[in-house]
Amino acid sequence: MVDAPTLLPEERRDDRSRLGYLMVAIAATLFAVNGSVMKVVLDSTLTPLQLTQIRQTCAALLFLGFLAASAPERLRVGRRELLLLVAFGLIGVALQQWLYLVAIKHAPIGVALLIVFTAPLFVALFARFVYREHIRRRVWLAVILCITGLALVVEIWTGIAFDAIGVTAAFGSALVLTGYLLVAERERRHRDAASLLFYGFLFAAIFWAIVQPLWDFPWSALDDSVSLQGNLAEYSAPVWLLLAFTVVIGTFVSFALLTGSLRHISATRASIVASLEPVVATVVAWAWLGQSLSATQLVGGAIVIAGILVAQSAR
Q1: pTM recorded for the entire structure
Q2: What pLDDT, in 10s, does the model give residues 269-279?
Q3: φ, ψ dihedrals at 226, nearest 5°
Q4: Biggest alpha carbon distance in the chain?
């Protein structure tokens, strides 16, 4: 019998890195497809608030089941971190995802994501001026690229080509996502990603249950059959099936892949690969929903992505 070849440490590291990059790429693709799925639901039946509530409540239950079965000890919470976890859930999870859904309801998915993904730029600026971290000079190049690219994307010379509500919500989502990333970065030193996500979704679900009690949720709408719109308008699907995809694939599986990738590659590298999401989302929205951008907007999008990549490599 021939012995299997023994991998050298460098080869094992390369294999783990490739696995990490693949996990992030799959997660970004699933997130991108999920954007179009949520757009169909928003245009057909549920409001951004209702979709946010059902998505985050079900995600909290899935993460609870996963942790209870695999590592219940990770559910323990100290008094000192409880307040921070509550803030993380209310602002970083509940508010951020609600603003994102408002954005994609009123603006093309690709445009909304390009704006939301400027969050790493704000993280770098916050780290420089608040944390007083050393930030490479390239962050200023990132600022210039992002501002120039976004001006082209929203066609600012026309007075903003898209719904002002959508663009404003997207910028709000980017700012809130900045806080999410900063808190998550801090808490990851003390808590694993799965339990951090669970508590984020848990407190978000509790918040939405107060804002809109579950008995007031339009449960009957889940049985409605809705058109898939755009190039798939001749087909329809029940709302509950679309929501199942959003919760299981677009939230639980996607977040699990993204957080799991951090075992193999650094957060900075993972965030750079995750920038595939607005690119893939734009392609999916074009192929499925018929959303398209002008040549100028596509150039602007490429400049924004370049700025995002530069910002993510600045720390």
Answers
A1: 0.85
A2: 777 777 788 88
A3: -120, 150
A4: 73
